[in-house]
Each structure stands twice: as C-alpha cells, then as structure tokens.
Amino acid sequence: MRTFIYFSSSARTSGNWDDLMKAGRMDIVCNVIIHSFSLSHQKREDVELHLVFYGMPDPPKHIVISTKEYLSGRSQDDKEKLTISKKDIAGFIKKMLYKYREGEKTEVFAGCFIEKKNLYAVLDELKEQGKKIFLLDGDGQDIREVSNEDIKNGAFLLGDHDGLPRKEIKRLKQECEVVSVGNKTYFASQVVTIVNNEIDRRES
Ligand SMILES: C[S@@+](CC[C@H](N)C(=O)[O-])C[C@H]1O[C@@H](n2cnc3c(N)ncnc32)[C@H](O)[C@@H]1O
Description:
single chain, 2 domains, 8 helices, globular, alpha/beta, binds S-adenosylmethionine
C-alpha cells in the first residue's frame, strides 16, 4: 500500500466554503487527490492518502482515503459517489468535513474516514502499522538512493503551498527520514506524481 500524508496549516476544517482558493487552498488538496489516485484511464488501487488539516474553525482534522477499500466497493452507490473527477472532488471533501462528528471516527464513504487527530498521532499510528515515515524536503537524501524495502514500507509526508510549519520541521527531521525528489521546489501534487512514478519504476 502506498501511503501519502498531506499536511496543510490553512485548509479549512469545516465544510462551509465554496471558493477553493479561499478555503485554505483546497485547490491544492484536489490536485493532490487526483495525482495520488489517478493514472490515464484507470485508478491506482493501492494508495492510502491522509489529509491533515490545521485550518480554522476546528483543527485538527484527519481524513483518510483508501482506494483499496472503495474500489473493492461495499456498495455500487459508494463507488459512484467516489468517482474521482476534478468536478466532484471539492464536493467530496466538503461532504467528508460536514460528516465529522465530535469524538468519533466517521466512515463517510467506504474506506474514507474523518476524525479529529493531530499530525503526530497520525504518524504514530502509521509507524505502529510498520510504516517508515519519509519527510519530503528538497534538502533530503535523494529518493533514488532509498532501498526498495524502505520505499515499499514508506509513508510520504509533504506540505502545502507554505510547506510544513517551520516550528514542526525540526522535530519532523529528527523523527523521519528526509528525502528529496530533486533540487527544484515542486508543487505538492507534482511531488506525489514523482514519488508514485519512482515506486512504479521499481515495481516494473
Ligand atoms: C509547493 S512545496 C512548498 C513550498 C514552500 N514554499 C516551502 O519552501 O516549503 C509543497 C511540498 O512539496 C514537497 N516538495 C517540494 N519540492 C520538493 C523536493 N524537491 N523534494 C522533496 N519534497 C519536495 C515538500 O514537502 C513541500 O512542503
């Protein structure tokens, strides 16, 4: 299972917004979702995406989207609702946020959950599942030098347009392996594509 964690300090934590840009750059979230799960003419079946939002009004929020679960389809209805097209994604995120219930981990669609959980708790849970956390950062070790075994068990953490918060970076750099996809700064969604491609090439 490929695992990505997208962290945003500004992404809204309620569903009452329409303008993607003003909702803490939900346009970037949409692109990250598309590039996590989409190939030309097919969806990736082995991806789990964690979205961690620290924006107003009720941070933190943790949304998990797992394609394995939803593509296996508990119901045709769920499958239809989860069609990944650019047009539908903003509505999908809004619905996930609207369905949040205090004190609960709510499954909104098959394999798609929302709960209140902070970044470190998300990372700890992934570590307990045997994942190795990689912090994506231009200053890290070249991803091409990471072993196949580590890549296979990797969970890749990346930031939004502002990057990961400066005050967290120091701690994250101590707790995670830091990996780079090159010496240019890419959009978050481009980084997801590059990591997916790196894994694809090793699997082929
Ligand atoms: C648009 S970039 C953030 C730019 C922000 N101004 C900064 O300096 O962090 C979004 C995220 O993509 C990841 N990223 C961008 N370029 C990268 C690179 N060359 N190697 C690894 N990760 C990268 C980082 O996790 C970053 O937080």
